[in-house]
Write a structure and sequence with these properties.
7-stranded antiparallel beta sheet, 3 helices, about 20% helix, globular
Length: about 260
């Protein structure tokens, strides 16, 4: 009896991980991707607010499908900040070439390898202004700042960087996209940390296997960088590759601080 139950659980677990990835692979094959870095679109998606005439402080977190085959599994995320009265945004993200942490390497809302980004988190006004210096400090204290530290899987990568900022600045209340592979990489070995939203806790072994529980994140099981979980905050399920399949009317929109 116990053996049959274990087999059924194993089968369901495999299906829940493998089927979403297979669907994403089929979708990627059908839609295609740019032949190379040079032929991809990196221009502005024109979704960022115009800073001209807008004095309020703004903090935004963006995510877009990763380039080429990586997009089957993950998104690429970055952070943009505009202090009060500033004439433009400063964009911070980590890439796999050159210096890991880039500042204004691309338009604040730029396409990523031809994929349109979305704003997954946003804070404006006085609260945003109070967090600008803390975010700047978190960027500079990122432990994988040195050249050559980037690793696409299981991390540290672009999503490890953004999740690090969330953990260092819990006032952000940042919930990372569930398909942001690398968000659960906490370092080598078995480690325990707050979740990026600061509303819960997680444990992870080398970013390869772990568990997270939080008010924003819900319950997440992480295996080989892929996330399977239940999101009570947004009334949805989290599936590898696909992300959050949400049932609430407001799910999928940015959390506004």
């Amino acid at each position: 009896m116990q053996g049959d139950m274990l087999k059924k659980l194993t089968l369901w677990f495999a299906l829940l991980f493998c089927v979403p990835i297979t669907l994403m692979a089929a979708w990627s094959a059908a839609t295609g991707w740019p032949d190379n870095w040079h032929s991809a679109d990196w221009s502005s998606a024109r979704i960022a607010p115009n800073p001209n005439g807008n004095r309020e402080a703004i903090i935004q977190v963006y995510a877009a499908r990763a380039g080429r085959w990586k997009g089957v599994f993950s998104v690429h995320s970055w952070v943009a900040i505009k202090p009060e009265g500033a004439s433009g945004f400063t964009r911070y993200d980590v890439v796999g070439w050159g210096s890991p942490v880039r500042q204004n390497g691309y338009p604040v809302d730029g396409m990523w390898y031809g994929n349109t980004p979305e704003i997954v988190h946003e804070i404006r006004g006085e609260k945003a202004q109070s967090l600008v210096a803390k975010i700047d400090s978190a960027v500079r204290s990122y432990p994988h700042y040195q050249r050559g530290s980037y690793r696409a899987w299981p991390g540290p990568n672009s999503n490890t960087f953004v999740a690090w900022i969330g953990r260092q600045v819990p006032e952000l209340g940042l919930e990372m996209p569930p398909n942001a592979v690398g968000k659960d990489y906490l370092g080598e070995g078995l480690r325990i940390s707050a979740t990026p939203s600061g509303t819960g806790w997680q444990i992870s072994a080398w970013g390869l296997i772990g568990l997270a529980v939080g008010l924003r994140e819900g319950i997440e099981i992480n295996i080989l960088g892929a996330t399977l979980g239940v999101d009570f905050d947004d009334l949805g399920v989290k599936l590898p590759g696909i992300g959050c399949v949400c049932l609430s009317a407001t799910a999928g929109s940015a959390h506004i601080g």
